[in-house]
Amino acid sequence: MNPLTRRSFLGSATALIALPTLESIGFARLAKAAEIVKAPKRMVFLSMGWGVTKETWFPDRQQVGTNYELPQNLSPLAPYKDDITIIQNLQNQFSTEAHWGSTFWLTGANRYGVPGKSFNNTISADQVAAEQFGRDTRFTSLQLTGRKADGHGPGASLAWNRQGKPMAGLDTPVAAYHRLFSDDNTPLEHRQAQLKKRRSVLDGVIADARSVQKGLTATDVDKLDEYFQSIREIEIRLSKEEEWLEVPKRFPQDPVNEPEASLKGYEEIKMMYDLMIAAMQVDATRVFSYRMPTDSLIQSLGATITSHNMSHYVQGDRQDVSENRDQTHAKLLAYFIGKLKASKEIDGSSLYDNTAVTFGSNINSIHYLTNCPTLLTGGGAGVKHGRHLVMSDPKTPLCNLWLSLLNGSGVDIDSHGDSTGGLDELFV
C-alpha cells in the first residue's frame, strides 16, 4: 500500500465527509485531525483605473466607526455593510504622476529611487504573499487584467516580482479559464521531453552568460545579476511545472463553462470573479490580482466616451458616467462577496472567512493622488469589519495597509515598500 502523501490527500479532498463525535476517539483527537484540513488563507487585490467619483464614493469624514452612512456610489453594498471596511487618508508618498497610478499601487516604490535610472519599482504586495502561499498550489499566483484597449499594454498586470519587473497577466476570461481548467492532452512522455528540452536550453543560456562575466563594469555586473535572477525565476517555474506534471487539474464544486470570447465590460468582470471563486474552490492558487478594465466597462453601460475623458469629469454627463461606473463596481463587488460567503470550505468555514480582499486605486479622482479609495472585505486577515476609518495622518502610507494585511494573513514580514508600521486600527 502506498503511503499517504500530501498530494494524494489533496487529490482526494473532495471525498472528505464530516465524522460524528465518537466517544472512543475523543474531542482532542478530532481537533488534531481537523488541523489537517484547515482551510488555507488567500489574498485578492482588485484595482479599478482612474479612481472614483470623490463627491459620492467616500463616506462623510465626520461619521467614523460603525455609525456611518454608506455613500451613494457604494449603496449596492448595503447588504454587506457589516462585512466591509472603508479607509481614508492612505496614499503612496512617492506617487507624483497619476498616469502611473496602478504601476505602484501594490509596491509603494519611488520611481526615481535608484540614481541614474528613470524608472524603478519593487515587489508588489501580492507577490510577497505568493512567495509563501504559492508553495503548495499549482499556480504560485494568478494575475488578471483588461485588454490593451483599456489604457495599458497587453497583459500589463498589477504584479511586480522581487526584482521590480512587471509580471504578465491574463487579459480575457477565456485565457484565465484555459490556464486554470484546461487539461493538456499531450502525452505525458512528450511533456516531460519538452520540459527537459527547455531545461537544456536554459543551461546553455546560463553557461553563455557566465562566460562573459570577466572584465565587466560595475553597471554591467548589476545588469547581469538581474539577468541571472530572471533565469532563476524561470528555473523555479520549470520545477513547479515538473512537480504538477502528473497531477490532473481539478474542477470546482459548481462547474464553470468556458466563457464566451465576446465578453466585455460588466459581464467580463463578473466572469473573472466567477473564475477566481472556482480557482479557490480547487485550491489552484491562493493569491490573485485583477487590474479591472474601465473603457470596456463604461461602454458596456452605454457610455460613448473614454475612461480618460470620464476621469476629467465636471457636473454633468461625464460625472454621471463616473458615478454609474462606481455603482456598477459596487454591485459586482457585492456579487463577489455573496459568492465568497456561499462557498464552503473543507473545514466548514466559507471562502469569505479565509480570504482578505482589497478593492481600491492609487488615484483618488481625476489626477489627485491623495486619499486613495480603499475598501476591505473578507475575514482572511482578521480585520474587524463594519466600519469607516479615517487615519489621523492624512499621508498615512498605503503600504502600512499592505503590511497589516500580509501580517494578518500569516505572512511574517517587518516592512513593505515605504511602510512605517501596521494599522492597528483594523483589528480593534
Q: Compute the number of structural domains.
A: 2
Instruction: Indicate the structural class.
Output: alpha/beta
Question: How many strand units?
Answer: 11
Strand count, sense and barrel status of the largest sheet are: 7 strands, mixed
CATH superfamily of the largest domain: Alkaline Phosphatase, subunit A
Low-confidence stretches: 1-34
Globally, the shape reads: globular
Per CATH, the architecture of the largest domain is 3-Layer(aba) Sandwich
Reading the helices and strands in chain order gives HHEHEEHHEEEHHHHEHHHHEEEEH
CATH class of the largest domain, named Alpha Beta
Number of helices: 14
Whole-number average pLDDT?
A: 85
Task: Explain how this protein is built.
The protein has 428 residues and is an alpha/beta fold. The protein has 2 domains: 37-180 and 257-427, Alkaline Phosphatase, subunit A (3-Layer(aba) Sandwich); 184-247. 37% of the residues lie in helices and 11% in strands. The strands form 3 sheets. Strands 4-7-1-8-9-2-10 form a 7-stranded mixed β-sheet, with helices on both faces. It has a two-stranded parallel sheet with strand order 3-11. The chain has a two-stranded antiparallel ribbon with strand order 5-6. The radius of gyration is 23 Å and the shape is globular.
